[in-house]
Amino acid sequence: MGLSSRFRKKTKPRLPDGVRVYAIGDVHGRADLLQSLLTVIDVDLARSAPERAIQVFLGDYVDRGPDSRAVLDLLIERSKTHETVCLKGNHEIFLLEVLKDPARLQEWRHYGGLLTLVSYGITPTMNPSAEQQVELIEGLKRALPPEHLAFLQQLPSSFTCGDFFFVHAGVKPGVPLERQKDEDLLWIREEFLASEERFGKYIVHGHTPVSAPDIRPNRINIDTGAYATGNLTLLTIQGDSLLAI
């Protein structure tokens, strides 16, 4: 799906010459879909050989889907051989908070966190007691590879390239991009989604599932609910051209 000619003529956000960005929406444990898109990117890189290619992942790698552990493995390995930017999502923050406070396990389960436990070989009961919650999180701490924990702790909240601002959830209208708070970058919905404000950069985000990439004059949402729909979106940007597949 490409941008309309009307949109391109009106605003034309651009990347620097020679730069191509590949942005991928919320993965949520779908390692199979992520691997397929990485293969698509590799084929495109081999065919077109851009001067500089940056792969940007918009957060929410864990929870809801079946294989959060494998998703983190893929992203960590990818970063060793390609220029990647892995942004933090609210689900990564929640996982780190549960590691500190096992009492939040019951809340985490509503975010699909039990599937993350299972991906690390931990089988939770349906309604764990307070003592069992502590045991489950202690088990997760033991099962979580050190490189996974380091990866989760080092994720940035946003990334800027040319006229584009990449973020998990969105930005708070009326606040300069350099003064945005993590709470909004990771969690905001209605206030941002309803805004027609030009934010100083064109916002590329996920967080709120849509049936197809939602292209607006000031933003594009590429979270297509991969864990439920089987559709993980890849957005390719070069110059002022955007293509979502």
Work out the radius of gyration. Answer: 18 Å
Low-confidence stretches: 1-9
Largest sheet: 5 strands, mixed
Instruction: Tell me the name of the CATH homologous superfamily of one domain.
Output: Metallo-dependent phosphatases
Give me the CATH fold name of one domain.
Purple Acid Phosphatase, chain A, domain 2
For the largest sheet, list the strands in their spatial order.
3-2-1-9-10
What is the distance, rounded to the nearest whole angstrom, between the alpha carbons of the first and last residues?
6 Å
Number of helices: 11
Looking at the chains present, what oligomeric state does this protein adopt?
Answer: single chain
Q: What percentage of amino acids are in beta strands?
A: 15-25%
Walkthrough of the structure:
By secondary structure, this protein is α/β, with parallel strands linked by helices. The chain has a domain at 19-89 and 156-244: 4-Layer Sandwich (Purple Acid Phosphatase, chain A, domain 2). Helices cover 40% and strands 17% of the residues. It has helices at residues 5-10, 31-48, 68-81, 90-100, 105-109, 113-119, 130-143, 146-153, 182-187, 190-193, 226-229; strands at residues 19-24, 52-57, 84-86, 158-161, 164-167, 202-205, 214-215, 219-221, 234-238, 241-244. The chain has a five-stranded mixed β-sheet, with helices on one face. The longest helix is centred in the first third of the chain and has 18 residues, at 31-48. It is globular, with a radius of gyration of 18 Å.
